[in-house]
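Data availability (excerpt). The following record was deposited with the supplementary files.
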Amino acid sequence: MPTTRPLTARAPDEEHRTATSLELFFDLCFVVAVAQASTSLHHALAEGDIGHALVGYSMVFFGIWWAWMNFSWFASAYDNDDTLYRLTVFVQIAGVLILAAGVPRAFDDYSFGVAVLGYVVMRVALITQWLRAAHADPSRRVTDRRYALGVGLCTVGWAALLLLPGRWLLVGWLVMAPAELAVPAWAERAEPTTWHPGHMAERYGLFTLIVLGESVLSATMAVQAALDATDELGSLLAIAFGGLLIVASLWWVYFSQPTERVVETARSWFEGGRQSDSFVWGYGHSVVFASAAAVGAGIAVAVDVATGHAELSERGAALAVAGAVALYMLSVWAVSGRFKDRTRVGPLSAPVSAAAVLVVGLVTGSVLAIGLVVAATVAAFVVAESRDPSPVP
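Predicted structure:
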């Protein structure tokens, strides 16, 4: 491996392009941040502070997701794996860990100082990468410089928010979050970067596994703690089995989609000028990731309710799980399922299932019932697909 070499664009049709060990290590460090956000959501819901839980989780998870997004899409286009590139990624990893350390403070009392510090560390490294790419890739120099400028201005904006009083932080966030989302749309208009469809499909799939795994971990730890302090074995087993059905079904829902072909379609739309369609897939995954991580927090709250360690009601805990599950199914359908029509039930399966999950959660207050509904939806989809298969358009 050479110490340094030009950070030129990689081919978007490169064969056998897979996630590198450095990318997997980067994702592993993000597990810490996702776990902190999920745990904070769990505690806020258990205390019955629904409004604070939703607002704090949305703000914190946006920062986590967007930092991961920025690295992943850049790496898909420009990863040359030289020493300087690796060292820059290690700086970004340090920023991730600082961000993760600041998540509880940001969630609990909107104290974003530590989280923003970690974010700035990551962004400084990212700006360096974009400037390297601009120097080595003349055909996309304008695009790369736009990214560097946009990321830099947004980083200054986030740091400036620390000067605002607590109540104004949400207003500032509502300004800065759309500004962040606008940077790629503005930069890519000059000349699209050469991200790899298959590589990005794998990267998104791997991060989906990370957040689903966090849900499994959160629920397992909650059940373990409850078993050490209570004799409510029957109700805990019902929650555990329902949670297993839910997580397994959510995995099935996501990975039954022809993800790589969806991404290839999105790329053709982007290069054809239909940017709004292509960004649905990339940006829509923020809801997929956030809702998947929230499922674990909801299951953990249900365990707390069953053992008398939460102020939320049993029905409230079930609705927390049902809401996260419904949002996950709708968002997966929006980013992938709407691109295809494999069966007669395919286009409507996710919206109908999401509505059924919410109704069951409201009526029964049971995590197990929610799991059975989601599993039944997946089973119906699989049966219908086997009987009436049709090619992906």
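Summary of structural features: The chain has 13 helices and no strands.
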